[in-house]
Amino acid sequence: MGFRQGGGGSSGGGYGGRPREKHKATCSECKKECEVPFKPTGDRPVYCKECFSKRRDSGR
């Protein structure tokens, strides 16, 4: 009793248990190629994980 199926943490699944689709993009800040979990449209800047967290932390 008390069993949960599957492991916790990030199992890579998006909504409905499907794996999240990654799209290649170039970071607007450091110009490094990265992958993002959404399709870049070109009308907004895209940031890699490092630059995104730096911007988020400094924006407070």
Description of the molecule:
This protein is of the alpha+beta class and 60 residues long. It has a domain at 19-58. It is built from one helix and two strands, in the order ββα. Strand 1 (23-26) and strand 2 (33-36) form a beta hairpin. The chain starts with 22 loop residues before the first strand and ends with a helix. The relative contact order is 0.16.
Mean pLDDT: 80
Shape: globular
Give the strand line-up of the largest sheet: 1-2
The DSSP helix count reads: 1
Work out the number of β strands: 2
Biggest sheet, open or closed, and with what strands and sense? 2 strands, antiparallel
Q: Bin the helical content.
A: 10-25%
Please compute the radius of gyration using only Cα atoms.
Answer: 16 Å
- Find the structural class using helix and strand composition: alpha+beta
- Indicate the proportion of strand residues: 5-15%
Uncertain regions: pLDDT < 50 for 5+ in a row? Answer: none
Order of helices and strands: EEH
First-to-last CA distance:
44 Å
